[in-house]
Structure formats: C-alpha cells, structure tokens
Input
Amino acid sequence: MYRIVHAFLTLEQHLRAVVSTPQSYRPERCPHCGFGELWSHGYYERKADHSSHAALNPLPVPRFRCPACCRTCSRLPLCICPRRWYCWALQQLVLSLLLFGLSLRCAAAVAGLSRHTVRRWWRWLREQTQIFAFLLRSRFPELGRTTDIASFWRACLRLMPLRQAMAWLDGDGLTVP
Ligand SMILES: [Zn+2]
Output
C-alpha cells in the first residue's frame, strides 16, 4: 500500500525520472509510522519490460528509509504493477472482456494466458469490488449510479484506466495486485 506514484506511464519515463527527478518518488510520509522526512535508500531491481527483447530489464525501483522507525519502503511508477508480472494493460484487457460477458476460456485465448491465471484475476476482481467500489465512489461520485459489478467496472474503466484506479486504491491503503 501507498507504493504507487501517480506518474510515469512508460518504463522509459520511469528510467528518466529515476535519474533526473528522483525526488518525485519520495513519499510525503512513512507508510509505517507517518514520519515526514524519509531518506533515499538506494534501489532494488525488478523485471517489468515485457517487450520481446526485454532490453530495459532489470529496472531500478527507488527505496526509502524512515529515520524514525528504521523501516524501508519503495515506490513504483504507474507503469509497473506492484505484485503481478503481467502489465496493467493486459489485465485491463482480460477483465474488460470478462465484464462484457466473454467466457474465461475465450478471454484466456485472446490474451494468450492460461485459464488458471484469468480465473484468478476474475475471482480477485469480484471479491474486492465491494471495498474498491466504496472507496472509488467516495472519490469519484459519478461512479455511484451503477448497480452491479459489471456496470460499476465498465463505468470505472471509461473514467480511468485500471492502473489509475489501482493507484488511488493503493493510496487509500489497500493492497493491490
Ligand atoms: Zn517510519
């Protein structure tokens, strides 16, 4: 939670920002204790380039250390999904297909994924929708007029991409994929 920076839509933008404006990743406060002045604490590396050459891997992810509680945290750009290897755009495609009524088998075939993965994403979305919808509606009142899971997410994804919705929820303290 509180890991996603609302900026940097591409890995190239992220790499440039890490070098030229590293302060844009610094959290305003410690996510563990709330202390206000975190120190830079280097980087960790993770793979996030899904292109055929994967030339940008591994990518640096900025870390910070809290001088008050001594714990560390890291910040990710919008273009990197915190806990799943697959990119947000592919997840949005799959979930959109399911929201429009395609079968798990069909969505998996379109996306080139296993049905197991697609089923897991779909179950996650349905299980989390109640709390996600509550928090997103309190921030975006125009989402309040929808009645069921599918119409809520269709309205949400018309308003903003999945990665943006997840960044808001991450900022609200929820664990997102
Ligand atoms: Zn702290």
